[in-house]
């Protein structure tokens, strides 16, 4: 994707330049602690000025495994965030065998990744827990992780 245009307010853009603003870019999302095996992963992002909008999905196959502490590498490094900051984010862990959607929360891990956390209700208030082979459920074929969000870049 092209870098932001160095134009002033009085610059007249061509049709090609206007079309390039906010152009969707495909990327292959990288998830730590997930061995994809015969699963699939897809992602897209759009950068408009200094804001990146992204979405990513992994679908488990019969040889896909998840160990622990799942992080998603962002398509473009974030700016102005530190580890443990939250970002505008939504995500779902889907257990296909039970047809159950589990909400997730994400926190920044440096400027290049977000940690995907399962929302838990073990105490008085909702909390969050690291993912594992059994959290938020035991992962199996056709289960999915779907995420989307936006954040600022330099």
Task: Provide structural commentary.
This protein is mainly beta. The chain has a single domain, classed as Adenovirus Type 5 Fiber Protein (Receptor Binding Domain) (Sandwich), CATH 2.60.90. It has 1 helix and 11 strands; from the N terminus they run αβββββββββββ. The protein has one helix at 15-20, and strands at residues 25-26, 34-35, 40-48, 51-59, 65-66, 71-73, 88-95, 100-109, 113-120, 127-130, 144-152. The protein is globular, with a radius of gyration of 18 Å. The mean pLDDT is 90.
Gist of the model:
The protein has 154 residues and is mainly β. The chain has one helix and eleven strands. The two termini are 15 Å apart.
Keywords:
11 strands, mainly beta, 9-stranded antiparallel beta sheet, two-stranded antiparallel sheet, 154 residues, Adenovirus Type 5 Fiber Protein (Receptor Binding Domain)
What does the overall shape look like? globular
Radius of gyration: 18 Å
Work out the number of β strands.
11
Uncertain residue segments? none
Q: Beta-sheet strand percentage?
A: 35-45%
CATH architecture: Sandwich
Number of domains: 1
How much helicity do the residues have?
A: under 10%
Summarize the helix and strand pattern as letters.
HEEEEEEEEEEE
CATH-derived topology: Adenovirus Type 5 Fiber Protein (Receptor Binding Domain)
Write the layout of secondary structure elements.
Layout: H1 15-20, E1 25-26, E2 34-35, E3 40-48, E4 51-59, E5 65-66, E6 71-73, E7 88-95, E8 100-109, E9 113-120, E10 127-130, E11 144-152
Antiparallel strand pairs: 1-3, 2-5, 3-4, 4-11, 6-9, 7-8, 7-11, 8-9, 9-10
């Amino acid at each position: 994707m092209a870098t932001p245009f160095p134009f002033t307010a009085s610059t007249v853009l061509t049709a090609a330049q206007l079309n390039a603003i906010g152009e969707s870019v495909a990327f292959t999302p990288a998830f730590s602690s997930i061995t994809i095996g015969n699963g699939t992963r897809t992602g897209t992002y759009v950068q408009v000025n200094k804001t990146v909008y992204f979405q990513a999905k992994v679908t488990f196959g019969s040889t896909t495994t998840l160990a622990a502490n799942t992080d998603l590498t962002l398509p473009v490094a974030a700016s102005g965030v530190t580890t443990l900051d939250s970002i505008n984010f939504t995500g779902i862990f889907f257990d296909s065998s039970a047809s159950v959607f589990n909400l997730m929360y994400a926190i920044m891990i440096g400027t290049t990744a977000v940690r995907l956390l399962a929302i838990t209700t073990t105490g008085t208030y909702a909390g969050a827990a690291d993912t594992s082979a059994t959290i938020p459920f035991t992962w199996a074929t056709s289960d999915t992780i779907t995420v989307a969000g936006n954040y600022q870049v330099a």
